[in-house]
Amino acid sequence: MASIESAHNAGASEVIVVDDGSTDGTAALCRAHDIRVLTQPNAGAYLARRRGAALVTAPYIVFLDADDLLVTSGVHESLRILSAQADCAVVAGRVMASLPRGRSRLNKQSYSEINTRTLLTQGYGPFPPGAALVRRADYEAAIALDVPEIVERYADDYELFIRLSVVGRIVQHNTVSLVYSMYAGKSIGSPEKSLLCKESIRGHYARHLGITVRLMSASAVAAAANARMGRASFARGFYLRGCTKVAVAACYKVLSRLDNSGLKQSTIVSGAGTSEARG
């Protein structure tokens, strides 16, 4: 309920909860507090967000996960900018990461400029979806693009931001708008699957939008997945496991560099199709 309370505190005119097959009594608790609830068998965040957004009547949307909290001052700054700049589809604030064992840190801004090309070439989402205020009209335009969607089990927020970047600008200001539960999501539980889904999305949109990208090799995916698990282990105080995962990641990173040096093939995707290239 803390996430819902944070939405009300930030001035939300309506809150819609999509219960994606939970077993913890979420739906009953929300209904007891007169909150609108949709229920569905576990189908993933993509379909949950789509169903919830279809019922929104307000001009702006925030896609807030149950374990994250909105920060009122940051949301208000996003609203001020989005209201004043009609060419913006998305305005986001900074993200305060909530870490295990009661710690927190301000996440770095990973993009100097957020657009379709940088999202595809850099290959990761700019911020968690809850940090962003999305213009509903632009969200609907993004869903209606003639570029077909690719429904993956993971990285659905990455795909959403790619589509939104086609219809309007994405900007990020310096005021914190979200407290984000770090190392708690499904990308930590299944990091390799998450990365593979993300690369599938990259390749799909690169082909359709005519942007050349070099997809991650299998060793690069394994390196990134083990590094992610290592960081999560260190954050939770599991230092031996963290050291092991970091060491494995380092080995795969060496293999990845060999891939890129031409000793193994790497995949380059562009609007002209997919090719195997050396170097």
Radius of gyration of CA atoms, rounded to a whole number: 19 Å
Low-confidence stretches: none
Q: Based on CA inertia axes, which overall geometry fits?
A: globular
Major sheet details = 6 strands, mixed
Number of helices: 11
Q: How far from one another are the termini?
A: 51 Å
The averaged pLDDT comes out at: 88
| Element-level helix/strand string | HEHEHEEHEEHEHHEHHEHHEE
Give the strand content: 15-25%
Which oligomerization state do the chains in this entry correspond to? single chain
Strand element count: 11
- Fraction of residues in helix: 40-55%
Q: Classify the secondary structure makeup into a structural class.
A: alpha+beta
Structure, explained:
By secondary structure, this protein is α+β, with helices and mostly antiparallel strands. Helix content is 47%, strand content 21%. The protein is built from eleven helices and eleven strands. The protein has helices spanning 2-9, 26-32, 45-53, 72-84, 116-122, 136-143, 156-167, 186-189, 191-209, 218-235, 239-263; strands at 16-20, 36-40, 60-61, 69-70, 88-99, 103-106, 132-135, 169-181, 213-214, 266-270, 273-277. The strands form three sheets. Strands 3, 4, 5, 6, 7 and 8 form a six-stranded mixed sheet that branches. It has a three-stranded antiparallel sheet with strand order 9-10-11. A hairpin with a 3-residue loop joins strand 5 and strand 6. Helix 7 (156-167) packs parallel to helix 9. It is globular and about 55 Å long. The mean pLDDT is 88.
